[in-house]
Amino acid sequence: MYRIDASWPAIGIPACVKSVEELPFHAVGEKYITAVVEGAQGMPLLLPVLGEAYDLPSLLDRLDGLLFTGSLSNIHPRHYGGPPDRADSPQDPQRDATTLPLIRAAVAAGVPLFCICRGHQELNVALGGTLHTQVHTLPGKLDHRSPKNVDYDARYAPQHRIALEPTGMLTKILGRTEIEVNSLHWQAIDRLAPGLVVEAKAPDDVIEAVRVEKAKNFAFGVQWHPEYKVTENAVSLALFRAFGTACRERARARLRAPGKAAE
To answer: Of 20, 137, 215, 253, which sees the most CB atoms within 10 A?
Structure first.
């Protein structure tokens, strides 16, 4: 276990709203917190999803990176002009109201982003893309949903292979053009947002990874779950290490900014 160093880059993790004994709690899964610490070697800062209450430029001035997590909830279709979702689709309007504008502001400000599962979908929607809400019902598509009645190790085990773009940035980071992933989801990218490029696809052509093409820094979305037991998977660890490196570079730049040294 790492001892967290106060000099590590500050990595914000927007929460989800959960009901605990009929009261709302802002929560982040421990596996994401652990991945930031052990994978990226960053200081995790849990961000309550307060929507318009945030002054986004001020918030981003305090952060060296952002991790957008997976979740049981789905983005409401009104944010991308989609048809109504299935009746039992779990929603989190406070997260929608926080993460979508936060992603747009972070991309503009050059803050490193790592977007996982729901976060991958949020990245696409925030920049103008759309989603399929039930991929398994589409002709020729795999059933990407989580296996039922199995333990967590089985649930987060590799489910299928994906092909990485041979000239993509993920290929450069990982040094390979094919990997196995633990991709677990109902929803997936339909129309790709302007400014995003595809970095990987599943065998059924579902988009499994994207990159912000003109990002000033690390800005990736992945549909799978590299946070799960991050130190036990070389691919997952390489992704979080690359994210952490980008966050440290931003931290150094922030400290060198005019007026910072005197604060």
So the answer is: 215
